[in-house]
Amino acid sequence: MTTSGAEGILERVHEGVERAGEGDVIAFAAIVRDHQSMVFSIAYHFLRDRGLAEEMGQEVFLELHRNFRSIESPAHLVFWLRKVVVRRCIDQARRRAFWPKLRLDEVPEPAVAARESDPMLSRALARLVASLPEKPRMVVILRFQEDLDPADIAELLDMPVATVKSHLQRALAILREKLARTVGEIAI
Amino acid sequence: MSYLEEDLKAALRRVEAPEDFAQRVLARAASPEARPASWWKELGRLLRPPRVQWVALSVIASVLIPVAGTEYRKQRQVRIEGEMAKDRLVFAMRFAGVKLHHTQQKVLGLTQTDNRL
User: Fold this and answer.
1) Which of A25, A26, A32, A178 to mutate to test the interface with B (most CBs of B within 10 A)?
2) CA distance A64 to B68
3) Given A38, A114, A123, which is nearest B14 (Cβ)?
4) Which pLDDT tens digit goes with each residue over A31-82?
5) A68 touches chain B (CB under 8 A)
6) What residue numbers bound the domain in which B112 lies?
7) Alpha carbon distance A37, B15 (integer Å)
């Protein structure tokens, strides 16, 4: 993408933010379409429930609709959406104390040895991620889905960068160990 | 980046939201419930109990207010009568004190006269 092309898109997005803030439905719809995948995916990977993720995603955009005047820029819009969906996901998990935590030994084992970009491996990994505690789970999702740096994740989750790094390292160690065990069992 | 991290990227790649996601958001945003309520409406909503509670509150109030009023009037009457009785007692004691003083003076005067004689 050329620099002028990127600037053109940014300008269009900025205009959209301004127009949506003034009650322009078309501009708001365009913003929803541009960001629905990000919001829905964070909720879906965290909750592992499409219906719940869709409901939460809609709530996030409705909250955006109510607070549009507080949005200052396209970057602020993305940050705001991520922050709200992250907060809602963690609240949801806490509210539902009976939330059925997926036990690692309940994760279906892949039928064949794992290989890179194997869809079964991806599904197993996604479920392993869903079995992590709330904060490390969200750290992993933001790191690998949204490709955010630990500093950005720390800002979103209101925690020190060192804590984010610690969550990330521990989560990766757990995932590596469990995945190796699963794959090892299959190999035997 | 390790294999695990690459696998995680693949496992956690973004997924598409349902097709009619945006339309549903817009429909909900257009509905009156989605519009932000003013602070005074929110306050009114918080202070608005269900109808049954209003009825119960009215019944309790209609019983308690007359009882409380009657009791207050009784207490006030007792207090006024008490104050009057106290005033009368103080006056009687002062009067008796003055009389006693006069009598004592007279007795003292007679005693001194007897001594001189």
Assistant:
1) A32
2) 52
3) A38
4) 999 999 999 999 999 998 899 999 999 999 999 988 888 888 889 999 999 9
5) no
6) 3-34+50-116
7) 6
Chain B residue with the nearest C-alpha to that of A123: B11
Instruction: Look up residue B100 and give its two tokens.
Output: 């006693």
Instruction: Decide: A52 and A43 in contact? Cβ < 8 Å.
Output: yes
Distances (CA, A) of B102 to B8, B17, B99, B107, B109: 112, 109, 5, 9, 11
Model pLDDT, residue A150: 95
Please indicate whether residue A148 or residue A95 has the higher confidence score (pLDDT).
Answer: A148
Number of domains in chain B: 1
Letter for the amino acid at A42? I
A7 CB burial (10 A radius; 0-12, 13-18, 19+): exposed
Strand, helix or coil for residue A6: helix
Two tokens at B57?
A: 């509150």
Element (H, E) at B21: helix B21-30
Query: Which is nearest to B19 in space by CA: A40, A46, A64?
Result: A40
Are A13 and A32 a contacting pair, CB within 8 Å?
Answer: no
* Chain B contact present for A142, CB below 8 A: no
Instruction: Identify the band that residue B51 occupies on the pLDDT scale cut at 50, 70 and 90.
Output: low
Which ipTM value was assigned to this complex? 0.71
- Are A42 and A89 spatial neighbours (Cβ–Cβ below 8 Å)? yes
State whether B29 and A45 contact (CB < 8 Å): no
Domains of chain A and any CATH numbers: 8-100 (1.10.1740.10), 102-188 (1.10.10.10)
E-only strand ranges, A1-94: none
